[in-house]
Write a structure and sequence with these properties.
The structure is a homodimer. By secondary structure, chain A is an alpha/beta fold. The first copy, chain A, has two domains: 147 residues, 3-Layer(aba) Sandwich (Rossmann fold); 157 residues, Dihydrodipicolinate Reductase, domain 2. Chain A is built from 13 helices and twelve strands. In chain A, the strands form two sheets. In chain A, strands 3-2-1-4-5-6 form a six-stranded mixed beta sheet, sandwiched between helices.
Chain lengths: 313, 313
């Protein structure tokens, strides 16, 4: 397939790097200021080297990537809340041109799921978004396998940064601020970790899951969200005395979303450590399914994007 | 889709019971002595009640189910080794009639994978077999998502009976014979548990995984298999002193299959308890993925069959 990749952050970069290995060709790449376009396929190394060196990917305008010859738009620009712009307009432009869309950007399917589905209905293109929930973990694929009607709830650890902080606090007996600073030094937490530690990122993923399970109707505004900022080290010590620990758990049902710190068994399935993510699906006929793996990272999330692309063939 | 279901054991029965819930119609059901056929759909309750009452499902001959009007043959007769008959001939008949095949019977894809693929190439029908590995765990679907070329190895706990025995032995300090008898009382182990405790069942699943990862070439004869019969309780005690435990672990790579008891960390990911199964996939670009869930059971395995059927639409 021919891919137009919007966004050259960690995920977009990895999609450009790995597309060839999965049998696809990148015909356009755009960041917020520039674009590289070649109907026969851009040179991935050259484009990414230029981005590194000059801050731009090519000499074309970003908007040209939206109209360049391609089968699939890969939307990997940063997630935005509310109207989910400019991501949403990119999705609309591609669908109106009867192209497929693969999202790594959570905004359009978390904040405007019903609008996206309406546009998809009028298009020959389809919208897939495995990469928006749980990085390399094929959770939407598993939901598709069982059928959304046969899953009553999805829950799990969906933010690696918050999980790293909580598991380090529990393992080392250190305070929140100390561990967060350590996570920032390691590159696990961003300079502004608000989205991660306040639960927003996990909530967006759960909103997407609720939309898939319930066929739409949910956005971040309806989610009940609490973060991990206020958890004292003493709470983790107290939990440990009882064989328990604390994790930021997100829960999605067809009815809605709750995210917050929860007490869970220390050696239980949900107590993944470090930046790992885990999703549990409650099925109607097959009990509980657990899937864990790398929930973030450029190459990891790019594999989810490329698996969606292959599904569109 | 219209389904012809061969085999009325736990899995076949559940497929007949659940097909309607997933939007499919059962037009033929056969056990080894009889068949029920109705182009408009058999009455699932009536067929299963008759089987319970009289030991037969209907008045037609079993072979009639193979020629009855259907889109998909669901092959759920008992797994056989070597030539994998009569399952293999059922697969051939369906493919030669350009029908799809969904397998719960492991024989054809473990023992004669290349023959099945050859027949599939000359047919308008496809062969899917998610139900043959790990019951409700969508492991073949996950391999398809990443692409077999991007998975270097699959390993895990793939036999619930052996896992139940080993986890009970470790937890209760009881001997093998005692726990096996208990498992038989509970219906977790069969009267003749040879296939499970000798590692054959786990090996067949790993052979199927190796065939998928390496595009064929493997059968049970090439697998290196050791069972759990000879493990003394003292070995589990010794392991526990060191924070370890023993599980029957199967490993598949494109090159081959090994199954045997292995020392693993007591609180590690692979140390699932009871009859649960777990599969780990090592991916080239996305690290390790773990999937755990119910690895056997009628309804659980039937969901895998029905998810394959839906994939054929």
């Amino acid at each position: 397939m021919k891919l137009a990749v919007l966004g050259v952050g960690a995920v977009g970069r990895s999609v450009v790097e790995l597309a060839g290995e999965y049998g696809h060709t990148v015909t356009a790449v755009a960041d917020s200021e520039s674009a590289a376009i070649d109907p026969d396929g851009v040179d991935p190394e050259a484009v990414l080297a230029r981005k590194e060196r000059e801050g731009t990917v090519g000499d074309a305008a970003p908007a040209d990537a939206l109209t360049a010859a391609s089968d699939v738009l890969v939307e990997a620009t940063p997630t935005t809340l509310g109207d989910a712009e400019p991501g949403f307009s990119h999705v609309r432009a591609a669908l109106e041109a009867d192209r497929h869309v693969v999202l790594a950007n959570k905004g359009p399917v978390a904040e405007r799921y019903d609008d996206v589905r309406d546009l998809e209905r009028d298009s020959a293109g389809s919208v897939l978004f495995e990469a928006t929930v749980g990085g390399a973990i094929p959770v939407l694929s598993a939901i598709r396998d069982f059928g959304p009607d046969h899953i009553t709830a999805a829950r799990g650890v969906l933010n690696g940064t918050a999980n790293f902080v909580l598991s380090r606090m529990a393992a080392e007996g250190l305070g929140y601020e100390h561990v967060l600073a350590e996570a920032q030094d390691l590159g696990v937490a961003e300079a502004d970790p608000t989205f991660d530690v306040d639960g927003t990122d996990a909530a967006l993923k759960c909103v997407i899951l609720a939309n898939v399970l319930g066929d739409g109707g949910h956005s971040l505004a309806d989610a009940e969200v609490r973060g991990i900022r206020d958890i004292p080290g003493s709470a983790l010590e107290l939990a440990a005395e009882d064989g328990q620990t604390v994790r930021l758990i997100g829960e999605a049902t067809p009815e809605g979303v709750r995210v917050g710190p929860r007490l869970i068994p220390q050696n239980g399935t949900l107590a993944v450590t470090g930046t790992r993510n885990i999703v549990q699906l409650e099925t109607t006929n097959a009990g509980r399914l657990n899937i864990s793996g790398r929930g973030a990272g450029g190459p990891e999330t790019a594999t989810a994007v490329l698996s969606d692309v292959s599904r569109l063939r």
